[in-house]
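Reviewers of the previous submission asked for a worked example of the structure-prediction workflow described in the proposal, so we include one complete record here. The input consisted solely of the amino acid sequence. No template or homolog information was supplied to the procedure at any stage.
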Amino acid sequence: MQMGQFQEALAMLKKAVLVNPDFSPAYVNLGVLYIETKNWDKAIGALQKAVDIYPDRYRVYDYLGDVYRIKGNVLEAIGMYNKALGLNMYLSDVYLKLGEIYRASGRKEDAAALAKIAFLEEKSF
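From that input alone, the workflow returned the following structure tokens.
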């Protein structure tokens, strides 16, 4: 995304939340924009606002998990990924992300189990 496009999208999304502060998709998209520009704290703020408004959006927890993992807050990332899986147990990519965290922390058996689940979920589609 070009800087001009980013600024335009940012302005439109900020206007959307001013017009309708309970419009969760605008906060999700703001969070994604902030992720793309590596503005982690603003991404967390926007995504958290989205789940405060509409807590059943599993993909938002996945995004939050990604940001927390990038920031090095592994426990928070695990919590977010588990919330995503609690809302939708068919997220093979989230099982793999959790597996990566477990593998990096030396929990190889747990990582292998999650990879197997992810493979089975992908295969079932």
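Residues 1-54 form a domain with the Serine Threonine Protein Phosphatase 5, Tetratricopeptide repeat fold (CATH 1.25.40.10). We consider this example representative of the routine output the project will generate in years two and three.
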